[in-house]
Amino acid sequence: MRKITVTFVDNAAALTGQKSGQFLHERSRKWAFTWQVAAMGFADLYQHLQGEGRLAVLPSPMENSPLAVRQCLTLGLPFVAIQCPGVPN
Fold first, then answer.
1. Distance CA 27, CA 82 (A)
2. By three-state DSSP, how is residue 24 classified?
3. What Cα–Cα distance (Å) separates residue 30 from each residue in 25, 44, 55, 57, 62?
């Protein structure tokens, strides 16, 4: 089986009242994959996502704006997104 590493892009958000890093650390105890948090701007993120076996995940309505989806489509980046207003299947 191929080793999977998930990279979260840090935007210092709060999740369930906790800082995102703390939230991820607590949740990761149950995960069967390794993970990392990276602070990067759009250019670095684009370069990172161009690597082999990479997939952009747009899990929230805010990140799932039609602009983020359009950017992925325009740049040819594979992605998955939740269904929300403005983002059809």
1. 21
2. helix
3. 10, 29, 22, 20, 26
Domain ranges for the chain, please list them.
1-39, 54-89
Residues in contact with 20: Cβ distance below 8 Å, sequence separation at least 6, in sequence order:
8, 10, 11, 12, 13, 14, 37
Tell me the CA distances in angstroms from 29 to 5, 25, 36, 68, 87, one per residue in order: 14, 7, 13, 30, 32
CA pair distance 67, 81, nearest whole angstrom: 12
pTM: 0.64
Residue 1's pLDDT is what?
56
The encoded tokens of residue 2 equal 């191929």
The upper half-sphere exposure of residue 72, i.e. CA atoms within 13 Å in the direction of its Cβ, equals 18
Give residue-wise pLDDT tens across range 4-35: 888 887 666 666 777 777 888 888 888 888 88
